[in-house]
Amino acid sequence: MALILIVDDDAALAESLAETIADLGHRPVVAASGREALSRLAAEPGVAAILLDLRMPGDLDGMAVLARIRAQDSPPPVTVLTAYANAGNTIEAMRLGAHDHLTKPVGRADLAAVLSAMLDRPAIPSAAAGEPGAGDGLVGSSAGMRRVQKTIGLAADSDATILIQGETGTGKELVARALHTYAKRRSGAFVPVNCAAIPRDLLESELFGHVRGAFSGAVTDRTGAFREANGGTLFLDEIGDMPREMQAKILRVIQDKVVAPVGGRPVAVAVRVVAATHRDLPGMVAAGTFREDLYYRLNVVPIALPPLRERLADILPLAEHFLAGAGLGGKRLTAAAAARLLGHAWPGNVRELRNVIERAGVLVRGDAIDAPDLDLPAAARRAEPVDWLAGDLPGAVARLEAAMIAAALEASGGNRTAAARRLGIQRQLLYAKIERYGLGAPTDGARLSDLTTVAVANPDDQAWPLPRQPSDP
Prior knowledge:
Elements: E1 3-7, H1 11-23, E2 27-31, H2 34-43, E3 47-53, H3 62-70, E4 78-82, H4 87-95, E5 100-103, H5 108-120, H6 143-155, E6 162-165, H7 172-181, E7 190-194, H8 200-208, H9 225-228, E8 233-237, H10 244-256, E9 258-259, E10 267-268, E11 272-277, H11 281-287, H12 292-298, E12 301-304, H13 312-325, E13 332-333, H14 335-343, H15 349-363, E14 368-369, H16 393-411, H17 416-423, H18 427-436, H19 448-451
Parallel strand pairs: 1-2, 1-3, 3-4, 4-5, 6-11, 6-12, 7-8, 8-11, 13-14
Antiparallel strand pairs: 9-10
């Protein structure tokens, strides 16, 4: 039996967590604030794991508490729980050393799994907390994006080479910038180079630099991207389009950390390399068009960005983000517009969504953006209906749950209190589920058939563990 510290200012949720933890054979201890948590931790040296809420009253929020816990000698593992997960707090929590970052509500099975993983984990070395990074623009709370955000947090402070793979328009450069923003080397430069946009005969000079007179037209010295990024991050975008003869030189630089400018002497560099491509590099290796040794040198920490068609829960939050970012925050999407966005297949991914939203925001005179205002080709609409019985049980439960919430919101005219009463759940839980399933953007009058499509998002989620009933075994 392990001692588990629960830190949450919501008494009802803390009690529910404590009951579930006790059912799992452990001893729960509850703290209602950050300062109480630190006091409990000092008074209870046997704490084996901590469940830490992110938003708490007082001068210490969850992130500050996490930083103080991680600064201690041999701190217990900490999992952060929040109903307000975003890219920033997910990445920062993982960077500070959190074992995991989970979105409320947490199912019994998920809670048991994370406790088992924390208790089996060896002691975590302490780490000094750095300054939190700035916002990175990685909007999304879908399961796929949460995996990406957690990987960024885990890898940010490492010097390991990163390979980001994903379709065109998925946001690979945003991921690269986030890796730099949250890294210990963020005071250095972030230097992006598009390997597909630079002519073959100029790429070596662009990357490694040259000295004056090294070739015809070299009238001045050029530093080159590797030396410009010294102490920071070099982002090699579309590395799959790099000529094969250049691949050998890149491999040598990554291995030896030495750059040889054209016509000059070798220079040592300390640079973190992040590469990205939309191409199938393993297939190119098999075809002989990409060096196998370079592929394995780049693919130390892989990050796979999911296409937007697999991130339904992120479409409406992204649309609102783009409206606000373009200075069009006063405009809103109607239910019909939201349904049309959800029904589009998005072959151009996030870049296409951004263009569609900004175009509509500029051309629509009123405050409401309706379905006809969205310039979307009919050929790219989703044709497949929702298969309620597809996949595993948690996925089917998530689809049904989102559909029932959409129906309750429709029946109550958008009144969330009435919808929560109709569903038999607390308002706070309803708010968390509305945000999770992306049901907050459609306005009153949305049709159930327009909204159930979003129910396929985030299939791994389960309901909050309810108090046991007398009939429970």
